[in-house]
Amino acid sequence: MASHACAVHDLGKGHVHVRHAPSPDRPRRGAPMSAPMIRTAIRTARTAISRMLTILLLALLTGDPAAAINTPAPAAVPDGGPRPTEIRVTLDNNYPPYSFHMPDGSHVGIVKDLWALWSQKTGVPVRLIPLDWGLARQTMDNGGADVIETIFRNSARDLLYDFSKPYARVDVPIWFSADLSGITGVDSLRAFTVGVKDGDFCIEWLTDQGITAFQRYPGFEAMVDAAARQDTRVFCMDDPSARYYMTKRGVQGRFRYTEPLYTGELHWAVHKGNTALFRQIADGFARITPEERKAIEERWVGRRLTGMVSPQVMDLLIKLLAGLTVLGIGALVWGLLLRRQVESKTESLRTAVAALTASEERVRTIFDSVNDAIVIHDLDSGAILEVNRRMKEMYRVGDVPLSDIDVGMLSSGDPPYTAEVAADWRRKAGGGEPQLIEWHARRLDGSLFWAEVSMRRAIIDGNDRRVLVLIRDITERKAAQERMEYLSRHDALTLLPNRVLVQDRTEQALARSERNGRLVALVACGLDRFKTVNDSLGHAVGDALLRAVADRLKAAVRETDTVSRGGGDEFILLLSGQPDIDSVVETVASLHEAMAEPFQVDGHELTLTLSSGVALAPADGKDFATLLKNADTALHHAKTAGRDTHRFYAEAMNAEAVAHLSTRSGLRRALERGEFLIHYQPQVSLETGAVTGAEALVRWNHPEKGMVPPGDFIPIAEDSGLIVPIGAWVLTEACRQAAQWRAEGLSLSVAVNLSALQLQRSDLVRTVTRALAESGLDPLLLELELTESMLIQNTEVVMDNLRRIKAMGVQVSIDDFGTGYSNLSYIGRLAVDKLKIDRGFVADLTRSHDSAKITAAVIQMAHSLNLTAVAEGVEDAETLEALRALNCDVAQGYYLGRPGPAEAVERAARQVNPFRVGV
Q: pLDDT tens digits, residue range 847-901?
């Protein structure tokens, strides 16, 4: 069975390979032969005839056919040039068994041993330079080596080097998992992705045959490891290297292989024209006997089973030689007859190949010049098979191999832009439904961008299991769309929501208010005399002022509220989820206070006032249009009333809001004008009847209204935050008074109430410390009162403040005990000193059995915790006696003394008559 061969070149190594066409592909009898087949037949016949005639001649002369076959060529003789001191040889470092590295890093192989023997026989030192093949070529071309090994010969290399005769032939088959069947050659590979070594000639050889689905690996060893893991099931690899790495991994029984696709030949070579060195090397290798060479090969490859050649076998060989001779002569005659046909077909093939090459170059140029990224996926595995240049630029791939890239790396990863969702889109496209989607993509450097992705199933190189993906960068288009969408719902100058957006949010707030019963307020605001700014300073300053006003309005409301610009100097505020009218009034007041501070704009100090009108839903309207109309009406009334004020759409609310704002403004001025004073209510020991201390109670002496009841201003002070500076003033003044009593010989403690806002501030301890230091009061004479609700809040700041206050020696009492929920564990942990029984239980002590039981239980509990029990609201002698019977420790109330000036407490503390200390 004859076979034919043709020379092909490995563009990676420049190897020349002999491709064998298996016998099933030979022409049928009577069928016309193609040009390559004819030329191969002629070349094969000539080689066979020449070889057999040589063997026959040597056998007749020596009488030993085996010796004739193994007789080496005569060694070349050096031409007398200078003898080199050292020969540098570079070669491929990953080509077992000829040249490779052991796990410990040592370089071994057939070529190394041959050169070691060469050095021994010639006496010339040899330095081997094993490198990656590309680096070995560069080293040789740059003059870093004298000889290059493991190189294949082609016409291009003949211009650069003088080549030795080939010393080894290497078969390259297709390997596949043993559980596969039906893989017989190239045609059977079209349904598979073939594993290949990156840069290996096998890629180009298979591509020429129409196979384009490859899985690339950095080396043969990595490819065998992948095959052992079933990551690749069909792969192309040189026979010796494959057997070496499979045996090394112990997996040789798990794979089968086809007939060789092609066969290559190994040479050594020197620089072109270096005849002296070439002859010296050839002479050295000629001194190596066939037996020595065979021993080295058997060391790395193993021995073959051979036997003695019998006379019968020799006779058979002679007959075979005669037959081959006849066959060769016939082939020569047949070749001469078909020579013209061969030349004609060869020229036709050259023309076709040239046209195909030009066509492929045009397609590749178009493929790489398209402005969109192109990716070809394997439909089954999702692997990326091929990309164009634009894709590498768009995703900044750099030198990362395609085999290391997956869709997950190219997606932002934030749902729905994940690898799993991308796989769903790819499956839909593979099912015949073209897809067009927007995708949030990720470059390999981590940066994100928006892409428009189109997918469709495609047949590429005869394989219909492919998905063609086109990707266009739409980041700028997406940003422009988002900008247009933003500007359609926002004011271009202040970037506040415009009327369209505030209307949408108002409708949503109204829908929520129907479910939760909370109020929705729409506030129409106008800047007073803003036109004067534009007319005097110009529109640029006016625009800057509008932006500053927008910032202040946003800072004055909650994040859940909306500040929008209606146009000109008008703003619309949406206050949603308001618990009551008071909270709306507080917010409106904060808007006017925010405008009180002067604006610094372009070097100008500008003062503005604000007029506002308020409409409440559902009372003043149940839709945006109605609420806005009524808010504008209220704004008109506010401007008519003299500006710098506000009006509610309902007149009754106006009166309440005006009173609220009047009180709030008065409180701020009261601190500055010293309108606050402290009254002290004495606290009496029920055991001795002596005054032991006093509770400090703040009073407001309004210059026009007189004494304002605490219930009228304390809640407003707490809502506005003014309770903090007022409370600090009360604490400082009470400590000063207690220190004065101490200096006058009266050891009276002073009790000061803390608000929840004070207790939650981080500067509370600093305030208490400063009050004690400035007055010189002993901390044991200061008592801070807090309610149960403050303790329940249990924030970190509250607990830390109480621990630090107790560490100073200040006493702590729980006011209104029994009206809320107390966490007794915190009372114990914080070492509370007193429990003050709520006045509601004390007032009903003699009239209600339940109140009496609760009061007794609180007193008993306080004593069990080593706390002082204090009763508030003692209004008569009967109640006082009942408390004494229950062993209450301290009492206070109108019966024992009304709140009054400090002098009244001092007089009471100095009198002898117990239990009636003041009226």
A: 888 888 989 989 998 898 889 999 999 999 999 999 999 999 999 999 999 999 9
Tokens of 149: 């090994």
Instruction: Provide the token pair at 900.
Output: 């009054």
Look at residue 811 in the predicted model and tell me its pLDDT.
Answer: 93
Q: What is the widest separation between alpha-carbon atoms in the chain?
A: 156
What is d(CA 632, CA 612) in angstroms, rounded to the nearest whole number?
Answer: 8
In sequence order, which residues have a C-beta less than 8 Å from that of residue 596 and are 6 or more positions away?
none
Contact between 442 and 413 under an 8 Å Cβ cutoff? The reply is yes
Q: Using N-to-C axis directions, what is the helix angle for 311-337 and 35-62, rounded to 10°?
A: 140
Structure tokens at 411: 């997606």
Q: What is the pLDDT of residues 166-217, one digit of tens each?
A: 998 889 999 999 888 778 888 888 878 999 988 677 888 888 888 989 999 8
Distance (Å, rounded) from C-alpha 221 to C-alpha 203? 17
Residues whose CB is less than 8 angstroms from the CB of residue 328 and which lie 6 or more positions away in sequence, other chains included: 45, 46, 48, 49
Q: Is the pLDDT assigned to residue 3 strictly greater than 70?
A: no
For residue range 498-522, what is the model confidence (pLDDT) as tens digits? Answer: 888 889 999 999 999 888 888 899 9
DSSP 71-130: PPPPPP---S-PPPS-EEEEEESSBTTTBEE-TTS-EESHHHHHHHHHHHHH---EEEEE
Amino acid at 912: V
- For 528-583, write each residue's pLDDT tens digit: 888 888 888 888 999 999 999 999 999 989 988 999 998 888 999 999 888 888 88
**Comparison of pLDDT for 63 and 644, the residue scoring more:** 644
164/147 Cα distance (integer angstroms)? 11
Q: What is the pLDDT of residue 641?
A: 77
Q: What is the DSSP letter of 412?
A: -
Burial of 226 (0-12, 13-18, 19+ CB in 10 A): middle
> What gap in Å lies between CA 46 and CA 522, rounded to an integer?
104
Tell me the average pLDDT across 352-368: 71
Query: Residue 524: its pLDDT value, please?
Result: 92
The pLDDT assigned to 191 comes to 79
Rg of the chain (C-alpha set): 51
% the chain with pLDDT above 90:
33
- The length of the chain is 919
Q: Could you give the count of Cα atoms lying within 13 Å of 693 in the half-sphere of its Cβ?
A: 18
Helix (H, G, I), strand (E, B) or coil at 550: helix
- The three-point CA angle 34-35-40 to 5° equals 105
Q: What is the dihedral of CA 83, 88, 90, 94, to 10 degrees?
A: 120
What lies within 8 Å, CB to CB, of 519 at 6+ separation is 513, 577, 578, 579, 580, 581, 584, 616, 617
Identify the DSSP state of 414: S
Cβ count within 10 A of residue 510: 19
How many CB atoms sit inside 10 A of residue 914's CB? 15
CA distances to 404, 425, 471 from 468, in Å? 19, 12, 10
Closest CA to 235 of 253, 217, 210, 262: 217
User: 444 and 399 in contact (C-beta within 8 Å)?
Assistant: no
- What 8-state DSSP symbol labels residue 310? P
Can you tell me the distance from the alpha carbon of 324 to that of 318, in angstroms, rounded to the nearest whole number?
Answer: 10
DSSP classification of residue 225:
H
Taking the C-alpha atoms of residue 532 and residue 432, their distance in angstroms, rounded to an integer, is: 69
Cis peptide before 97 (omega within 30 of 0): yes
pLDDT score at 63: 43
Helix (H) or strand (E) holding 827: helix 824-829
pLDDT of residue 733: 94
φ, ψ of residue 822 to 5 degrees: the values are: -110, 135
In angstroms, the CA 486 to CA 491 distance is: 9
Tell me the mean pLDDT in the region 750-759. 89
Q: Find out whether 408 and 384 touch, Cβ atoms under 8 Å.
A: no
